[in-house]
Specification:
The protein is α/β, with parallel strands linked by helices and 300 residues long. The chain has ten helices and ten strands. The protein has two domains: 2-109 and 130-158, Rossmann fold (3-Layer(aba) Sandwich), CATH 3.40.50; 178-298, 3-Layer(aba) Sandwich (Rossmann fold), CATH 3.40.50.1980. The strands form four sheets. The protein has a four-stranded parallel sheet, covered by helices on one side.
Length: 300
């Protein structure tokens, strides 16, 4: 009996080791994607964040340590839409057995242009560019959940039903978050739904919730605004009687504060633009923070 018992214990140990070895390892190039991967993958997936909360998505470059963290990963999740200009180099360094998934590739893009349904005006040096901040939309996050679940299922067919089930639950949560945001934003009249921000990062949010966006800078929060563009922005704010402008977390508020002095508009609570805030780097936390800040500043 002892021999049988030892055999069963040993077999259980081998089975546990096999399960541990079979766990799908995923690396994420954005904290929001890392959080999404954990929700979709559950206990079947281990996730490592290559870009950490507090880092700048526009200027991040993978280091040797980053490459080490990604070792043995089967999938790397990227935002796409040209946000990560280093993907080809990263792929060369990681090798052919790692699949880099640009989640935003299958999500409809917003082009930055004056006179569109979303952009009330835009910096000349950003016009014609693609807004890469697709994860400001609950609808886009639902699309992303389906994309990630499909990729996990392809890499790990044994757990495809888990990924599918988790994806459905996550999509439902994002739909509920959208409904909550719509209810909160209903306190702001349609005429007041104009969002003055630092850089052009809220186009998808504005399209989803019926706002017009007025970005003072370009696509990156490090872009600069010419004196002429600041003058144009001041004119638009005055003509439309916009009551508040919004600085952004992790960005220099100097230009926005200059505009508040010129126009008399108040400065709202800083918005989370790139989704990498130390305190709010999941879609849920980011959306709730931004909606609450916008409502507090723009409601009557």
């Amino acid at each position: 009996m002892k021999i049988i018992r030892y055999y069963l214990v040993g077999l259980a140990g081998l089975t546990f080791a096999s399960l541990a070895m079979a766990e799908l390892k995923v690396a994420a190039l954005h904290p929001i994607l890392g959080d999404l991967a954990r929700q979709i993958g559950g206990t079947s997936v281990s996730v490592v964040d290559l870009l950490k909360p507090g880092q700048d998505v526009h200027h991040f470059e993978p280091s040797a340590r980053t490459l080490g963290d990604a070792r043995d990963a089967k999938i790397v999740l990227a935002s796409g839409k040209h946000l990560e200009g280093y993907l080809d180099k990263l792929h060369d360094n990681l090798g052919p057995n790692v699949k880099i998934v640009e989640v935003g590739r299958l999500i409809p893009s917003l082009k930055i242009s004056v006179g569109s349904e979303v952009f009330m005006c835009c910096p000349a040096h950003a016009a014609g560019g693609i807004d890469p901040h697709w994860w400001h939309s609950a609808d886009n996050m639902q699309r992303a959940a389906r994309i990630v679940a499909d990729e996990f299922a392809a890499a790990d067919p044994a757990n495809k039903e888990i990924y599918k089930s988790n994806s459905i639950a996550v999509q439902q949560k994002f739909a509920e978050l959208k409904s909550w945001a719509q209810q909160q934003l209903a306190q702001i009249s349609k005429n007041d739904r104009k969002l003055v921000t630092g850089h052009a990062s809220f186009g998808y949010f504005c399209k989803e919730f019926g706002f017009k966006t007025i970005p003072v800078l370009g696509i990156s929060r490090e872009d600069s605004a010419s004196p002429q563009y600041v003058t144009d922005a001041v004119k638009i704010i005055r003509e439309n009687k916009i009551r508040a402008v919004f600085p952004e977390d992790q960005a220099n508020p100097k230009v926005l504060l200059e505009i508040t002095r010129e126009t008399g508009a108040k400065a709202g609570q800083p918005l989370i633009a790139d989704g990498t805030s130390i305190t709010a780097h999941t879609f849920e936390a980011m959306l709730k923070h931004n909606v609450n800040a916008i409502v507090a500043a723009l409601k009557p």
